[in-house]
Design a protein that fits this description.
6 strands, 6-stranded mixed sheet, alpha/beta, 7 helices, single chain
Length: about 230
């Protein structure tokens, strides 16, 4: 009698685990990087690893975040048919540069050395249909070759030059502001010195005025005396 409840409990647990696995199961979405992209996809030839549906995204992108659960569903449905992957372009800039990624999310389909751009709605059904046969309605382009060491050095040089230019522009702007402030302070200081050192046009002191009046009166009395 005790065996039946135990079997029932085991069955309930198994059903619960199965449901949990189905909800959080493997999405079959691979994470590709600068180091692993060509090795795993064989994008230049497409001869060994099959077709790839790839999302190029940035972690801070709101549209990418909303697409994430839908894209996971796409990966689960296409498992065994099409390789589904994503690339964080902010941490793998060489792949982003190779495929000229300018906005997020960008979705491309890679098949037998050609790349097809997806411009449809970001729904599960549309993405699945595009990966299965919808790409045939889009004109494909030859997949760009992987960047060489010279390309990587050139990219790093351009990035360093751009950073240097930004720093220089900021320093130049700061230098202009400092010069303008210094010039203004210099003008104000010079004006203050001139004002302080300029003699004020004030009335003569009282004792000087008194002495002048006395002298004038004395001269007048003396002249009158001589006249008499």
């Amino acid at each position: 009698m005790k065996l039946v409840p135990l079997l029932f409990l085991a069955l309930v647990c198994q059903i619960g685990l199965a449901a949990n696995d189905n909800e959080n199961g493997d999405s079959n979405v691979a994470d590709l990087t600068d180091e692993t992209f060509e090795h795993l996809t064989q994008a230049s030839t497409g001869s060994t690893t099959g077709d790839w549906l790839i999302e190029f995204y940035a972690p801070w992108c709101g549209h990418c975040q909303r697409l994430a659960p839908i894209y996971d569903e796409v990966g689960r449905v296409l498992k065994g048919e099409v390789n589904v992957a994503k690339v964080d372009v902010t941490s793998s800039p060489l792949v982003g540069e190779r495929f000229s990624i300018k906005s997020f999310p960008t979705i491309k389909f890679l098949r037998k050395g050609s790349v097809y751009d997806y411009n449809g709605p970001r729904t599960k059904e549309s993405l699945i249909q595009f990966a299965r046969d919808g790409y045939q309605q889009v004109e494909g382009q030859k997949i760009p070759v992987p960047p060489t060491m010279i390309d990587r050095l050139r990219t790093q040089f351009v990035e360093a030059l751009t950073d240097l230019q930004v720093v220089f522009q900021h320093k130049l702007a700061a230098a202009v502001i400092i010069f303008a402030l210094g010039l203004l302070l210099g003008v104000l200081f010079t004006t203050l010195i001139v004002v302080v050192n300029t003699p004020s046009q004030q009335a003569a002191p009282r004792h000087v005025v008194s002495r002048t009046v006395t002298t004038t009166v004395s001269e007048a009395v003396e002249g009158r005396t001589k006249a008499e």
